Amino acid sequence: MKFSSILATMVLVAFVAACNTPKSESVDQADATFSALETGLLDAYWKQYPSASIAIGYGKYYDNLVIPSPEVYTSNIAFTQHWLDSMKTIGYDQLSDNNKISYKIIRNQLESDIWYQSVFKPQEWDASLYNLSGDSYYIIHQPYAPLDERLKTLSKRLEHADEYYKAALAMLHEPTREHIGLSIMQNEGGLSIFGAELTDSIAVSKLTEEEKAALQQNVTKTVEAIKVYVAELKKIQADPDYKFRNYAIGKDLFAQKFKYDLATDFTPEELYNKAQTDKKYYYGQMIHIADTLWTKYYPGKAKPADTLAMVQAVIDQISNQHAAPEHFFDTLTAQVYALKKFIVQKDLFDFDTTYPIVVRIMPAYARGFSVASAEFTPPYQKQGETYYNIDDLTLYPKDKAEGVLREYNRYSSQLLSIHEAVPGHCVQGIYNNKKSPDVVRSVFQNGAMIEGWAVYAEAMMLENGWGNHAPEMELIHAKLKLRELANVIIDYDIQCLGKPKEDIMHLLVKECFQTTAQAEEKYHRATLSQVQLCSYYAGSSAIQDLREAYKTKMGDGYSLKNFHETFLSFGSSPVKYIRENMLSK
User: Which of 82, 87, 165, 424 has its CA 20 to 30 A from that of 490?
Assistant: First the structure.
């Protein structure tokens, strides 16, 4: 009998026993039963999805490379359904509040897995799913084992790289043009991972000459397989008669993806309508601030009759204050140190500032989505570095670099560092790994909570004096709030309403004051993803509402630091689950 079947039987027996015990003992028994199921499920999950196990640091199955095929996805669905059936034997009502959160997170993940693979089927149209570069980078650099062991694991994983990429091409059925382009860029960029740095690591290792030769052979095989894959994608890209799939997924799929990805009480339409309404509020705020700044930037010049034109004119002057491309990285690095000092001085968190947050140039395999990003220590590895990745603007064409720098000027670049690094994504990621009561919160993360926290952090830092309440900072922050709202609007407009690029660009540039370069990047991103852009607004709105409710509940016992520590202690759980717990006691 398989372990999973044995475990399911154990769960059922334990549940029956729990029904005949006093309540406190029943809760303990139900929690113990759930803990056993969770442990077995997670190990089985990472064995079924070894590539997913790499990013979260579960090193047991790193050397397993799954060759994609229809049979693999059929197996995945059967696997998932088995575990969903096993979960039904758990007495949910008898679980502790903490385990109820974990139960719901696991169930949502499993239901989502089935939907993704049987209904959404990105494996058939998203060519960027097939990329060995990122996994290889993690295997090489994660400090989970000595270098020699990591290199042996890498060699084993890459043995069948040629079969992997050949099967990937066979899996693609009417891919989108946009994901073909992304896959080409990321796979070509990822070739650098198999270059000089890896060669140097092999040279200094203590592998036998035979092991070194085998590894080098597998690396060479992988590089060649990537090049062939890219070449085939370029042929598809250049074929004028090729039938590409439309990147817009439509209302029905969007609503289903929204439910699984965000786990929020909003519907897509409710969030879309709220964003449209709140846009008017921020217009009023920005018009007022720009009016007070007009004479500072345009002394003796009459204001435009068009109030939005006045706002844009003031933003144009503020946007001129930015770093040079070659200084952008150093500027943001300095911001991180200042932000750490600020949160300690203001006593906003019980945060260990010595925990490593490394600011680095964005790796090639991660480029293509955004100017900056956060990358965390894998959940199963409690020690390691958290990265604040910043794209190298010196690689950009001059006009594109200027557009990006105007968007991330002296003020907005600070908000970018708050969002991505401190106390946004990097800090939340550290809490997620160090203080979360259950690894489930770390491995099955909720995007709306994560992105919502980063957006919430921007406003919270300004409330507490970051930027000294300078009107320029307040204006640029309001502009970013418009960007957050616009994320929702364009996501829905593009994916559900099929609005043309001209309408999207007009909204972003003319109505939301974004540079053309930033608007182009956002439009590109919105054609490559769905729902994710809604996570910022959905999450931040929920966190802000929770803070106010928690403040009312705690009365004189409320402190902002306590709210932050309590909220972050739940890991990357959906905000609605955190809310239920924080307000119920």
Answer: 424
Q: Is the peptide bond before 423 cis (omega within 30 degrees of 0)?
A: yes
| 132-135-136 Cα angle (round to 5) | 80
Cα radius of gyration rounded to whole Å, the chain: 25
DSSP 280-336: HHHHHHHHHHHHHHHHHHSTT-PPPSSHHHHHHHHHHHHHT----GGGHHHHHHHHH
- Write the pLDDT tens digit of every residue in 428-466: 998 988 888 799 999 999 999 999 999 999 999 999 999
Answer whether 18's CB lies under 8 Å from 94's CB: yes
The span from the first CA to the last CA of the chain, in angstroms, equals 43
200: Cβ–Cβ under 8 A, 6 or more apart, which residues? none
b vs e for 296-305, b when ≥16 Cβ sit within 10 Å of the residue's Cβ?
Answer: ebeeeeeeee
How many residues in the chain?
A: 585
Q: Is the pTM of this model over 0.90?
A: no
Q: What is d(CA 357, CA 444) in angstroms, rounded to the nearest whole number?
A: 22
Q: Would you give the distance in Å from CA 377 to the centre of its chain?
A: 14
Reading the block at residue 568, the tokens are 């972050």
Decide if pLDDT at 1 tops 70: no
Q: 570 near 101, Cβ under 8 Å?
A: yes
Whole-angstrom Cα distance, residue 177 to residue 186? 15
Three-state SS at 375: strand
With beta carbons less than 8 A apart as the criterion, state whether 485 and 279 touch: yes
Give the residues across from 561 on adjacent strands: none
Which DSSP helix (H) or strand (E) runs through 264? none
Taking alpha carbons only, the member of 208, 197, 71 closest to residue 148 is 208
Residues 6+ apart with CB under 8 A from 235: none
DSSP H/E element including 387: strand 386-390
150, 205 Cβ separation under 8 angstroms = no
Per-residue pLDDT tens for 265-295? Answer: 999 999 999 999 999 999 999 999 999 999 9
* CB proximity list for 368: less than 8 A, separation 6 or greater: 182, 185, 186, 189
The residues that bridge with 374 in the sheet, in sequence order, are 388
